[in-house]
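In the design runs reported in the main text, the only information available to the sequence generator was the tokenized backbone. The following block is the verbatim input for one such run; it is reproduced so that readers can re-run the procedure and compare outputs position by position.
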């Protein structure tokens, strides 16, 4: 029995752009997000308040957050690594704060310059600060299905990080296959363990399509009752601090599959593809999603 309804969280303007070498103009990012807001999406992660030297592409997070046309029914979120980032985010009246860390030691160190243990107090302060400012908080755990540096990550280690984040008071947790190594059997095994501890109404899956398995992994997740998925339009994306990371699961491919299966997303594929064509025209490449390949041919 598959869910009848699924929520898709668009992370393209953040996860998609953070790995793009070509600098996109602020006004083009804003226009892209405004297109996305017209598509029926209920959630858009618009940028990231990390250190601008670490992610130069997203150095204009404030300008983007202040210029987009906000729709009251859409949650506009941004990544926040620490208190400095939270101050910057709150200044722009972002709706939701996304904290993030990794379940493997080396990726955590390369990505946010701290050990896992030293990351908890930093994030705890961010969650408390965000709650005081009346913001909801989403947590990401990266390298859930494998780490580019440490290899296999034991599920117990992943669950421990999830526990610690939920204890801080986060509202939702997104499980990241950062480098796209998960296979359907592994997703099945991990979700069985996750389900013993957490309710699926607060768990999202964040797949990358590096090895072409993202949609297969979505299907297994649906069979477990997961109803929240992250996607990046056109299949843009990847973590610059994960060697070998590539595009996210493409939102347009996901919407297509769910539409075909009669699962409601509330999203209009035609409008999504308009948004995808827009950002594609600002990049020096064609977008890798299947839907965009079909669109580009026709
Ligand atoms: P650090 O250098 O250890 O920071 O970086 P620090 O706390 O030692 O501070 C050093 C200086 O940076 C200070 O300035 C701070 O004020 C400043 P100084 O006093 O020397 O003049 N600073 C900041 N400035 C602006 N904004 C800030 C900020 N923080 C400190 N937020 C830090 C630590 C976490 C900041 C850095 O490592 C960083 O920005 N990392 C971000 C890396 C990143 O964005 N990675 C990609 C996102 S994660 C991902 O893609 C995975 C995901 O998609 C899920 C999945 O697929 O698995 C979410
Ligand atoms: Mg990601």
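Verbatim output:
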């Amino acid at each position: 029995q598959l869910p009848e309804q699924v929520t898709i969280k668009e992370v393209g303007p953040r996860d998609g752009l953070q790995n793009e070498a070509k600098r996109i103009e602020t006004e083009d990012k804003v226009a892209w997000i405004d297109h996305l807001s017209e598509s029926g999406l209920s959630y858009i992660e618009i940028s990231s308040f990390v250190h601008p030297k670490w992610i130069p592409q997203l150095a204009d997070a404030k300008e983007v957050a202040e210029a987009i046309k906000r729709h009251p029914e859409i949650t506009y979120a941004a990544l926040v690594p620490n208190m400095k980032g939270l101050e910057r985010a709150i200044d722009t009246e972002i709706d939701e704060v996304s904290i993030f860390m990794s379940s493997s030691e080396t990726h955590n160190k390369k990505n946010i310059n701290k050990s896992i243990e030293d990351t908890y107090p930093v994030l705890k302060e961010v969650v408390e600060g965000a709650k005081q400012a009346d913001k909801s908080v989403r947590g990401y755990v990266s390298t859930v299905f494998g780490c580019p540096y440490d290899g296999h990550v034991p599920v117990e280690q992943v669950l421990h990080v999830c526990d610690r984040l939920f204890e801080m008071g986060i509202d939702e947790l997104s499980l990241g296959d950062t480098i796209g190594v998960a296979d359907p059997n592994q997703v099945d095994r991990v979700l069985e363990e996750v389900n013993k501890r957490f309710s699926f109404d607060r768990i999202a899956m964040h797949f990358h399509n590096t090895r072409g398995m993202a949609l297969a992994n979505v299907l297994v997740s649906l069979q477990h009752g997961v109803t929240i998925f992250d996607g990046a339009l056109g299949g843009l994306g990847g973590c610059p601090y994960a060697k070998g990371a590539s595009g996210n699961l493409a939102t347009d491919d996901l919407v297509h599959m769910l539409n075909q299966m009669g699962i409601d997303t509330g999203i209009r594929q035609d409008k999504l593809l308009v948004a995808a064509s827009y950002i594609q025209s600002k990049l020096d490449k064609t977008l890798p999603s299947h839907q965009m390949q079909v669109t580009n041919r026709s």
